[in-house]
Hints:
The chain is an alpha/beta fold. It is 20% helix and 29% strand. The strands form three sheets. Strands 1, 2, 3, 4, 5, 11, 12, 13 and 14 form a nine-stranded mixed sheet that branches.
Amino acid sequence: MPTIYATAAEAVADIASGASLAVGGFGVCGIPDQLIAAIAAGDATDLEVFSNNCGIDDHGLGILLRSKQIRRVVASYVGENAEFARQYLSGELEVELTPQGTLAQKLHAGGAGIPAFFTPAGVGTLVSEGGLPWRYAADGSVALASPAKEVREFAGKRYVLEESITADFALVHALRGDTEGNLVFNKSAMNFNPLAAMAGKVCIAEVEELLEPGQINPADVHLPGIFVDRLVPTGVQHKHIEKLTLTAAKEAWS
């Protein structure tokens, strides 16, 4: 059974410098923002992060970027985070850009104990052939580029070998969970959370509502408690909107 912590700070207290983190969320949707804030308030630096992206400048993983606590990021895109782009292009941050579906499968494979798999995504591009800039030098030149990967042919089609991802810790956010660690995610906030949870050696979940065993229908469980090691009840949290879109006029609805 997972350990229940009263605060996020207590739950992440043993995350030390140099640790690797698999972090759920997509943009600002379903991100473990209280766990991230607790790490930002601590002393851990040189972190390696596996996440779809790095949030935005002032929210989510963007907080850890701003405080220079992240050394390396494996993500699908830079997104709306200007500081992420600045650190990457200036050579302050190492970034391994990975196709989104490949990243999801790398996390899933890590959690399932599968060391590597073949995928057609990226064949014939720099993803498989190597040369993607991982880190830039201060003068804008490429200081470190991605290596070439093994490519094989199956049934007349080429596939590239991708290694799975495991992390020291996983940080996830769930709508509700029970004291046995079973989690339920809210609609699209599910996104990368179950995959990140599976890939972490120690999974820390913040939950808006903590329930007793039996209060969650087994058919509604999105992530079984076997993957969850620590729980932090947070209460209902404010939901951030990355891009607010409004109609120009009332007549638009007519």
